[in-house]
Amino acid sequence: MNVLLTSVGRRVALLRAFRRELAGGGRVLGADASRLSAGMQDADAAYVVPPCASPEYVPALLEIVRRERVDVVIPLIDPELGVLARDRELFQREGCLALVSDPDAVTLSRDKRRSVKRFRELGFDAPDVIAPDLLARPEALDYPLFLKPLDGSSSIGATPVEGPDDLRFHLAHVPHSVVQSLIPGEEFTVDVFADLEGRARCAVPRRRLEVRGGEISKGRTVKDPAIMAQASGLVEALGGCRGCITVQCFRTPDGRVVFFEANLRFGGGFPLSYAAGANYPGWILRLARGEPVAPFDGWQDGLVMLRYDDAVFAPGLV
Description:
The chain has 318 residues and is an alpha/beta fold. It has three domains: 3-100, Rossmann fold; 128-181, 2-Layer Sandwich (Dna Ligase, domain 1); 184-306, ATP-grasp fold, B domain (D-amino Acid Aminotransferase, Chain A, domain 1, 2-Layer Sandwich). 33% of the residues lie in helices and 25% in strands. The protein has twelve helices and 14 strands. It has helices spanning 12-22, 38-42, 57-68, 78-86, 88-93, 103-110, 112-121, 132-135, 164-173, 225-238, 270-275, 280-288, and strands at 3-6, 28-32, 45-48, 72-75, 97-98, 145-149, 159-161, 177-181, 186-194, 200-212, 215-221, 243-251, 257-263, 304-306. The protein has a six-stranded antiparallel beta sheet. Strands 3-2-1-4-5 form a five-stranded parallel beta sheet, sandwiched between helices. Strands 7-6-8 form a three-stranded antiparallel beta sheet, covered by helices on one side. Helix 4 (78-86) runs antiparallel to helix 6 (103-110). The longest helix is centred in the C-terminal third of the chain and has 14 residues, at 225-238. The radius of gyration is 20 Å and the shape is globular.
């Protein structure tokens, strides 16, 4: 069985997890718009492809699928999710599973304002979103608030807002943004695994102890039943979700679980969940073989991840 990770970038740990689960029974391929990618150097075969916004992107991936007899394609960045969701059937015709959520679910998750509103409609706690007309009167708002790009990724442009002048500054620099209430408490990322029918099979909350460049650098698994149950329920209620779904929430001092984002892909901190025993790569291979995945909560509680810098050396690459 062969797996293709697209926009593989720095996802070396994830790539190696798939290789470990294949155990010599297949290859892990990488695709990226740049050869200067650590994941491309570690892959069993690497392909430079056009950017995902290009009309040539999907044809290039399909050519790799045919040439390498790829069984599973897994997109790893937000901008390509909608592209692969739209053309998922093209991969299916080649006998390949493109593990991506439904187009409607992807579109919703990419709009931070709409997704938070939808969380509330489904009965889950979520931050208050400041209406655009109220943003024109910053002095009338209660602070602190939190601002982020409407369709952002990796926490780029996301920032607390302490007062009216601060709000004006950030609105000027992040024009397409959403402003929400700032929720007090501990921040968690929850890796939820959904099967091909959208059923949540596992949920691993990871407390974010330290973040660098928008990604977790230090974290700890926390077996919190309320977070696990609510995150699983949210993924199922959204509908059309498949594979690893990364849900973000706060646990407030009074025990509320407040969801503020859902990214329908592997998050950068997933290696912690894998090390704890949540075998999402192995389960994806099971789905590709047409085998069911049973519910699982036997992962290790209290496992701490301390990420560090490493390097790949590639002579003559440039």
